[in-house]
Specification:
The complex is a heterodimer of chains A (342) and B (466). Chain A is an alpha+beta fold and 342 residues long. Chain A contains 10 helices and 14 strands. The C terminus of chain B is likely disordered. The chains are: A alpha+beta (342), B mainly alpha (466).
Chain lengths: 342, 466
């Protein structure tokens, strides 16, 4: 808005400096407003709201960089303003020496300082020991999660104990994806030809959002997961329960549900421990306890689960799950059965 | 010594284009072809802008269903590809082909027929890109086309249009680079030593060499990928022992220098315009020249800073952080040389100068956020977020398009023979400056809140709760 000034006045240079300052304060105001608006809402992907040491170190580095470079920005534009407002002379009073000092020497000092800060951050990010190994394999728009030492397999949800350094071994089936839990630390690509590693730790119990951050076509937008951090004893309990196969259903409704599962083709793609061996889709042994459906697409509820089974294509176009044509009674029994798998 | 009439007529006839359509097709003179390059690239630019508007419309409402996911993916792929391959580089080449002979006192570029060949390669490359729309199979693997996503298993025939079109565009780029380098080295007017070359000609000499070292690598990469796709080769197929990361190395070996291929001539435009409006010679010519050479050289040592998240060893990758800082120093030299030139000059604030002032603001902002994303640990958080999107629009639009707009206003009277109206041009500068910042500064903030680019939904699913 302040840019309209020079439209009318053919810019005597006195105006120029004020205009630059006006612009500057205008944009600082704009950013401040945005930040204010932003702070009032919960932001599950914010890197400025760290919940683990790695994200914390990087957030610190960001604020250090922000202030240093903000000063550089303001000083540089002030020098430009000064240059434009300074009284008229024949030749420039500033020669190569000024250019060298302002353009090379001082920035070099600043950048060496920033490089040292970077190295310190890298050093802080070094993980020395791991308490838990988790393998994550990305598929076409969902994540497979394995606890190799404990024999537990899950999908799109990762359970970890708080205060422990977890080593993630990442790989991909198919195209390149990327693994990112913004509030816990940086991202790491998941490659089809060799595995990569990432060390993360959560300080507080809670549910953290994770996403795929390498463009993988189709519904890349709907490829996410949840990382659930438990108190250590809760985590051990979860791990023990998860390692056991689900008990055979006794209620007739649940038995009918299992029978529908086996008969209607679900078992061709999905695994339920000791019940069905399919490998194409996510493991469903723990589906009833999950927080989301379709890799973070929907909240997990009975209604959403029924909707997902009936027509997953409408909710997440292009995913591998076909539409189903179940009788309402069968669908209810199936939902009840899956819901019981916790 | 005055040439007699007969000689003059023979001279005119020799250099005249042939009449009619055939003459238009076979045009070899650098000026009409340079203008043709620029106009064609601006048409593609307009198309890419329309695609950007469609994308922003889709994202304006949470969970919008204006575009299906695949349509959105195709549109952002074509937006990026069009902007970088069909607008930015060809515009740079067109401006160079037009200006360089004029600047160094040559009648034409070194190989006039090659100029013609290059232009048609460029146009057909672009048409092949857009022909994919006719067949309903628009490429959708992103403008960087990472393998294996762009390989035969995961991408349809749209990628073949993309690769073939890109192949022709690279050939066009290489021909233009040969023209520029040979013309500058061999066709300078007597007495014009390299040390006296206008800085804009120097920028073209530098980017000419950069194109010659970077484009053939992309040409090779596209060739290998097309062999994979069409003939069952396995260079990029991890299932058969190919490498998933090889493409990224080859692509960014080209891709990073390309950014400077676009940016350096823009600095050349600024180094031309500022002394004119300040009514004095540029300060620190040797330092600027050193900055150009350093940028050209070091830009080939930056490609891995696009790959910080790929899990390559950390210590070697840190060198790419350091190299990125070095390029920032080179940019700093130029910025302060321009500030020094302006110091106390009370410059005439014509339209080109206003664009350059807008450039200072946006480019310095983009340059500093560039230093941030080149800082490896921070990149682990911001890589593939809209923070990076905001950064590269700042440096490409702010750093290159605004200076080119300045250049267009500056040289337009020379090209067209008419003076433009001042008032509306000034209004345009204001709208572009304010509109650009309103468009991209929020993306920095959204990126810090973890919003990803390349997603067809905003709102609940799209990470953005603004």
């Amino acid at each position: 808005m302040s840019m309209k000034k020079p439209v009318k006045k053919t810019c005597h240079s006195k105006e120029t400096g004020q205009r630059n300052q006006g612009l500057l304060s205008g944009f600082i105001l704009l950013i401040a407003t945005l930040l204010l608006v932003a702070c009032s809402v919960e932001r599950p992907h914010s890197i400025l709201d760290p919940a683990g040491p790695a994200a914390g170190h990087i957030a610190t580095l960001w604020w250090q960089m922000f202030w240093v470079y903000a000063v550089v920005f303001i000083v540089t534009l002030s020098l430009l303003t000064l240059a434009l407002r300074s009284r008229r002379r024949e030749g420039s009073p500033m020669g190569s020496r000024f250019v060298f000092a302002a353009g090379v020497a001082i920035p070099a000092l600043i950048l060496v300082g920033m490089l040292i800060l970077t190295l310190q951050t890298m050093d802080n990010l070094q993980a020395t020991a791991e308490d838990l190994n988790v393998k994550v394999i990305s598929h076409h728009w969902w994540f497979e999660v394995q606890y190799p030492e404990q024999g537990v397999v899950d999908a799109n949800e990762i359970h970890v104990p708080v205060g422990s350094m977890v080593r993630f071994e990442l790989s991909a089936a198919g195209v390149i994806h990327s693994f990112w839990v913004p509030r816990l630390g940086g991202k790491r690509d998941m490659l089809p030809d060799y595995y990569t590693e990432l060390y993360l730790q959560a300080d507080e119990p809670g549910v953290y959002h994770g996403t795929c951050t390498e463009y993988c076509a189709g519904v890349h937008a709907l490829m996410g997961f949840r990382l659930v951090a438990h108190e250590p004893e809760d985590f051990s309990r979860w791990l023990e329960q998860a390692a056991d196969p689900p008990p055979p259903p006794v209620e007739p409704q649940l038995q009918r549900g299992q029978e529908v599962f086996m008969r209607s083709g679900c078992a061709g793609c999905h695994t339920i421990k000791d019940v069905a061996p399919g490998t194409l889709g996510p493991d469903l042994t723990l589906i009833g306890g999950r927080r989301t459906l379709g890799a973070g697409t929907l909240e997990n509820s009975r209604g959403n689960l029924a909707g997902w089974i009936a027509n997953a294509q409408a909710l997440k176009p292009g995913n591998e799950m076909p539409m189903s044509y179940l009788e309402p009674g069968d669908l209810h029994a199936l939902v009840d059965y899956l819901w019981s798998l916790q | 010594m005055k040439p007699d009439e007969l000689t003059e007529e023979r001279f005119t006839q020799t250099w005249m284009s042939r009449p009619g359509l055939l003459g238009w097709l076979a045009e070899v003179n650098n000026r009409p072809l340079g203008v043709r390059y620029m106009i064609t690239s601006l048409v593609f630019f307009a198309m890419a802008v329309v695609m950007a508007l469609v994308m922003r419309t889709q994202l304006a409402l949470p969970d919008n269903n204006l575009l299906a996911p695949d349509t959105y993916n195709a549109i952002f792929t074509m937006h990026g590809s069009t902007m970088l391959y069909l607008f930015a580089v060809p515009f740079v080449e067109g401006l160079g082909l037009y200006l360089i002979p004029l600047l160094i006192g040559a009648r034409d570029v070194a190989f006039p027929r090659l100029t013609n060949f290059g232009y048609w390669m460029y146009l057909f490359g672009g048409l092949i890109f857009f022909a994919s729309f006719l067949f309903g199979t628009v490429p959708d693997a992103g403008w960087t086309a990472y393998t294996p996503l762009s390989g035969p298993k995961y991408s349809g025939p749209g990628m073949d249009f993309w690769l073939l079109g890109l192949g022709l565009l690279e050939i066009a780029g290489i021909t233009a680079a040969i023209e520029i380098v040979v013309t500058i080295l061999k066709f300078r007017a007597p007495g014009m030593a390299l040390a006296n070359l206008p800085l804009i000609a120097w920028t073209y000499l530098v980017i000419g060499f950069m194109i010659l070292f970077s484009f053939p690598v992309l040409l090779l990469a596209t060739l290998l990928l097309e062999l994979d796709r069409a003939f069952g080769f396995q260079f990029f197929n991890p299932d058969m022992g190919g490498s998933s990361l090889l493409w990224q190395h080859l692509f960014w070996w080209f891709g990073h220098p390309e950014v400077y291929i676009i940016f350096l001539p823009a600095t050349g435009v600024i180094s031309t315009i500022i002394p004119v409006f300040a009514r004095r010679r540029i300060v620190a010519y040797p330092l600027i020249l050193a900055a150009l050479l350093i940028t050209g050289f070091v830009s080939f040592g930056l490609w891995t800073h696009h790959m910080f998240a790929t899990g390559l060893p950390e210590l070697p990758m840190l060198f790419f952080t350091a190299a990125s800082f070095m390029v920032a120093l080179a940019a700093g030299i130029q910025i302060f040389a321009w500030i020094a030139t302006l110091w106390g000059s009370r410059p005439h604030l014509g339209v080109p100068m206003l664009y350059i002032l807008a450039f200072f603001y946006i480019f310095i902002q983009g340059g500093l956020t560039g230093v941030m994303v080149a800082t490896m640990p921070f990149d682990w958080q911001t890589h593939e977020t809209t923070f990076v999107v905001a950064h590269f629009h700042d440096v490409l639009i702010g750093g290159a398009v605004l200076p080119f707009l300045a250049g267009l206003h500056y040289w337009m009277p020379k090209i067209s023979g008419r003076l433009p109206g001042e008032l509306w041009d000034r209004v345009a500068v204001g709208i572009i400056f304010v509109g650009f910042n309103l468009t991209f500064i929020p993306l920095y903030v959204a990126g810090l809140f973890g919003m990803r680019p390349n997603i067809h939904l905003s709102g609940r699913h799209g990470d953005r709760n603004l």
